[in-house]
Each structure stands twice: as C-alpha cells, then as structure tokens.
Design goal:
It is a single chain. By secondary structure, the chain is α+β, with helices and mostly antiparallel strands. It has three helices and eight strands. The strands form two sheets. A five-stranded antiparallel β-sheet has the order 1-2-3-6-7, sandwiched between helices. It has a three-stranded antiparallel β-sheet with strand order 4-5-8. It starts with 26 loop residues before the first helix and ends in a 9-residue tail after the last helix. The mean pLDDT is 94. The structure holds nickel (II) ion (NI).
Length: 177
C-alpha cells in the first residue's frame, strides 16, 4: 500500500479510455485499490479514478463523510465501483462547483445529471445497483468521466466560471478534489 503520484491535466494518460476489469478479487486488484484508497485519503479527496494514478482500468473510488470543505454537501458512502454503467433517470441538469486532484487549486461550475442510476461491481465482483441524486450523482459522473478521458474543465459551459479556488472562494478551506 502506498500513496501514489496523481497525474495532472496535460498528461496524456488522463485522456485515454480505460479498459474493463476482467478478473475480480485478485491480489493485483486489491493492491490497486489499497493504493487508490491511501492516495485519496492522503490528499483528502472526494474521489479518485485509476487513470489518475496512471492505471487504465475502469476502477473508481469515492466517498464523502463530514468534510469541512463541503459543509452543505450530503455525505456519500465510501464506494468502490468497477466497470460502471451510468444512466440518467431524466433530463434534469444541475450546475455545481467541482474540483479535481488532477487540476489542483482550481474550481469550475459543471453541469451534471441530477438523478442517476449506476451499476457496476465492487472488487469482489458483487453487483452494485444504485439510484442517487444531488452530490452523490455529481461525484459518480465526475469519477466515471475519468474512465472516458474527460476532465471536468471539458464540461464547463461558461469558462468565466472556471478559476483558482482561493480567488473564487476567498477564505474557504483549501482543497483540490
Ligand atoms: Ni477528478
């Protein structure tokens, strides 16, 4: 287990399409998830996708407890999601501020589907099937975008709503995810 370096925007490894995991409950998969967990925890992130540490597999983790950085955000259960499939439940879009460990020091206002069903597997191959909304829906869409080579700035509709966290939100506790 180790904290791994997180690739930053500009690295071509962040722009690839991740491959599906074919074998579950393997030592390699558990080791990858341990490193992702350690890395996300060390950086106090809300989520992390395997491509962000240079691994082109469809593996993401996310979870938000009581985070002083998101005083208004509902908590999201700690989740390992592999080979995800996302389905918007309707067309309703919500704009919200996002950051990313691969785009440190910045925030942008990003449109996301408000209500989402997502399916996939945990590291043991157990099926996951959830219907979520709000911040949970946003986090899943952000992390799964990484598996398609999409970083959140690519989804910002009005680039005037993209900038440095400390300028946009002076006095707020800093953070990059
Ligand atoms: Ni990200």
């Amino acid at each position: 287990m180790a904290v791994r370096a997180v690739l930053r925007m500009g690295d071509p490894l962040l722009l690839g399409t991740a491959a599906a995991v074919e074998k579950f409950d393997t030592p390699e998969l558990h080791a990858l998830l341990a490193d992702m967990h350690d890395t996300m925890q060390a950086l106090d992130g809300a989520g992390l996708a395997a491509p962000q540490i240079g691994i082109g597999l469809q593996v993401v983790i996310f979870g938000v407890g009581q985070n002083p950085r998101y005083p208004d955000a509902e908590s999201v259960p700690y989740t390992t999601l592999i080979n995800p499939a996302l389905m918007a439940l309707d067309e309703e879009i919500e704009e919200g501020w996002e950051g990313c460990l691969s785009v440190p020091g910045m925030r942008g206002l990003v449109p996301r589907y408000k209500r989402l069903r997502y399916r996939g597997f945990d590291q043991y191959g157990n099926a996951i099937d959830r219907t979520v909304g709000g911040f949970h829906s946003r986090v899943v869409q952000h992390e799964c975008d990484h598996l398609l080579g999409i970083l959140y700035p690519m989804r910002i509709r009005d680039m005037r709503n993209f900038g440095y966290t400390e300028v946009l939100f002076p006095g707020e506790v800093g953070g990059d995810e």
